[in-house]
Amino acid sequence: MTMQPASTEITSRTAAIIQELKGLEGPLLPILHGIQEEFGHVPQDALPVIAEALNISKAEVHGVVTFYHDYRSHPAGRHVLKLCQAEACQSMGSDAIAAKLKQLLGIGFHETARDGSVTLEPVYCLGLCACAPSAMLDGEVIGRLDDEKLDEIVAEVRS
Amino acid sequence: MIPRIYIPGDSGALALGAEKVAKAIEKELADRGIEAKIVRNGSRGAYFLEPMVEVATTDKGRVAYGPVKPSDVKSLFDSGFLTGGHHKRWLGAPDKIPFLARQTRLTFARCGLINPLSLDHYKAHGGLKGLQNAVAMAPAEIVKQVAESGLRGRGGAGFPTGIKWKTVLDTTADKKYIVCNADEGDSATFADRMIMEGDPFVLIEGMAIAGVATGATKGFVYIRSEYPHAVAMMQKAVDVAREAGLLGVNVLGSPNAFDMEIRVGAGAYVCGEETSLLNSLEGKRGVVRAKPPLPAIQGLFGKPTVINNVISLASVPIIMDKGAAFYKDFGMGRSRGTIPIQIAGNVRYGGLFEAAFGMTLGEIVDDIGGGTATGRPVKAVQVGGPLGAYFPRALFDTPFDYEAFAARDGLIGHAGITVFDDTADMLKQARFAMEFCAIESCGKCTPCRIGSTRGVETIDKIARGIEPEKQIELVTDLCNTMKFGSLCALGGFTPYPVMSAINHFRDDFKPAPVAEAAE
Questions:
Q1: Which residue in A33, A71, A83, A129 has the most chain B C-beta atoms within 10 A of its own C-beta, making it the best mutation to test that interface?
Q2: What ipTM did this prediction achieve?
Q3: Per-block average pLDDT, block size 10, for chain A (159 residues)?
Q4: b/e for B442-474, b at 16 or more Cβ within 10 A?
Q5: Where are the domains of chain B?
């Protein structure tokens, strides 16, 4: 299980991130990115702290957090695997790749394996369209996915 | 002389194993006690040859090898590749490789050639001349040059760049901004990513020129979060540029102030729409704004803002270096200059191909792209990303030109081309277009928000054979509403892939064969 930090700790760590980025023009997205990097997700307890510091309502912060696909409300698995499902990858069989990967990992899109090893997400384009189908594992890019590469990915997330 | 080895650090090359190749080369150098300098360049864009390793030789110039696998490295050294020796992966001089030799590289002239973070390399290959010329000119003169070059927005809309700049120049305000739209979310496009990873200074130079030309002192590059390598490279390049006085209170020693920041998106496709991007930069939901007011008059934080795509801005330095007439000389009709065409999907020779406007779609797909990767016949090509039309072979005589594509109910968009072979199911592709619109809609306008979901449901009915003719009529009507009633291109252009699939591939929308239905 992932340990959840206590709310006072969230408050103080959030405040430190805000302090660092508050001077930027339009600081909310950089702050949210900073918080997600710090905690692995954007904890609910961080929202009032941001609202207070930026002098906006908590509803506004909530609205922004929930608008963007990137911000998580819960921590992800130890590995995050993003599989491209956009047209260029579709033309090279990304549907079949997705089906096989879901079966190998035993999870669907937007799900995390029960042992917390991996979270599987669809992504719409990684800009690797001339070497499709593609994926991104923990920020590392992988092109021309095939059965062999899928096996390597599965072995890596399970190790 | 110490040998110099170029191994791309571009994400496309990395995705194909460039890092492992680099490690293997480093190890081999150490094992053999050879001293060599490894440069991590960008990609030249011939992805079917990546990882493409190049060696700078004293007598033969640069010699390329590719696609190199880590297991090739030992034999490369045995074959004397450091002096250009022959090997099964030998490709010869990179600029003689047909895919690269046939291109007209203006915007991408340095991409893949130089060390992306070396300002000296950049200058040695013609960099900074455009900005040097610009700081010696009156702002209105710069704007005039850009307008006369015929440069149009490369992000998809094709709006004349010079007109945007002129509006910002003519609007008085205490602060103005230059915003670079690097939210390259369209499938089949990777030109922005390549330039940011392979020649970041050209974008910085283009933005600085835009600043000098319009009186804007602050720039933002909004890069999508799916591009971590591009983000890191741009950040480093901005630091180098600032250190060198290219950015700051006195750009290149002139009285013009201009500085910039790199910002990262958060996974919303719609933020590639300019007004939605501005909201996102301001820290708001990436909801589309109604126009007017135009961003050029009231843009970021309500101030006059130039918002241009990466390639538009990166094309400005060469215009300011060689002059408007030089650039305008390339192209056809009202589409002037060059366009980096990105050939992607199920294609044999995939990659970036910069050429003057005017090549036909067939030349690009068949001659340059070499047909499909699977070897099966080409069924359809989608031009312009998820909001672009699907063209059948019958339309392969369409020249790459904004107006020619529009005349055939298509669009060039960001010039990405996805090739599909004959196994593609066009009903499925039409459904995906609607589904994608539903996932990514910002929710502000009804035709896009509701229409996309109804579109998915209606296409599903066609797939199930429920009154297909009636459903097609409904989808057509719905597409009409979305096209004319949506606030931005997401809802407004989703009808292009949907209707082109229906119109050109009607067989895929017919009820399933009886034998299957009877099961």
A1: A129
A2: 0.96
A3: 73 97 98 97 97 97 97 96 98 97 97 97 97 97 97 94
A4: bebbebbbbbbebbbebbebbbeeeebeebbeb
A5: 4-101, 119-327, 332-421, 426-509
